[in-house]
């Protein structure tokens, strides 16, 4: 429980930094080049841009701090999964903004911030933390060593898989389990 609380605290700090980046950039864009007076879909486009930038900031913080003990040695797959989950959170935030701004007609900067950066953020954060914890950075999916090409054995925390179909004369490889 203590480890989970510490992890939640780190996730919160990274999220707070991402929130500042997201909200600051959203408001800057909405007030300038993507003003709803000049661009009808301005708030929506501003939210997409600000969220994408915040996703990158959050990935770096979560990969190297929040989930540092669970990150994979190869960042590509982890990064793709992180982006997929983050885009899901962005859809939640955009849905809140879209409903408020375009369906209910609450078009002020305050209404856009409450719907996209408060309500959308809370719902999206719960969604992202849960999927980061159970999918992207799940301990059983974290590779500790690359696959041994001669035996096809991979060593992962909690699991091992053998894909070799040809017998070898070498001693059988074993996976270590760390709990």
Features:
mainly alpha, single chain, disordered C terminus, 179 residues, two-stranded antiparallel ribbon
Largest sheet: 2 strands, antiparallel
Query: Which structural class do you get from the secondary structure elements?
Result: mainly alpha
Q: Give the termini separation.
A: 15 Å
C-alpha Rg (nearest Å): 21 Å
Order of helices and strands: HHHHEE
Structural write-up:
There is one protein chain. α1 packs antiparallel against α2, α1 runs antiparallel to α4 and α2 packs antiparallel against α3. A hairpin with a 4-residue loop joins β1 and β2. Helix content is 63%, strand content 3%. The chain contains 4 helices and 2 strands; from the N terminus they run ααααββ. The chain is mainly α and 179 residues long.
């Amino acid at each position: 429980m203590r480890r989970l609380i510490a992890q939640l605290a780190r996730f919160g700090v990274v999220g707070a930094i991402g929130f500042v980046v997201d909200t600051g950039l959203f408001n800057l864009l909405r007030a300038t080049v993507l003003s709803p007076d000049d661009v009808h879909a301005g708030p929506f486009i501003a939210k997409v841009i600000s969220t994408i930038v915040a996703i990158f900031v959050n990935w770096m913080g979560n990969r190297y701090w929040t989930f540092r003990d669970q990150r994979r040695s190869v960042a590509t797959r982890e990064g793709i999964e992180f982006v997929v989950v983050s885009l899901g959170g962005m859809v939640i935030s955009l849905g809140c903004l879209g409903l408020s701004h375009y369906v209910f007609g609450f078009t002020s900067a305050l209404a856009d911030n409450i719907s996209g950066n408060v309500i959308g953020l809370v719902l999206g954060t719960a969604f992202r933390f849960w999927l980061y914890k159970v999918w992207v950075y799940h301990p059983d999916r974290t590779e500790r060593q690359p696959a041994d090409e001669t035996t096809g054995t991979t060593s992962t925390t909690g699991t091992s898989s053998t894909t070799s179909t040809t017998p070898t004369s070498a001693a059988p490889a074993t996976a270590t389990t760390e709990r």
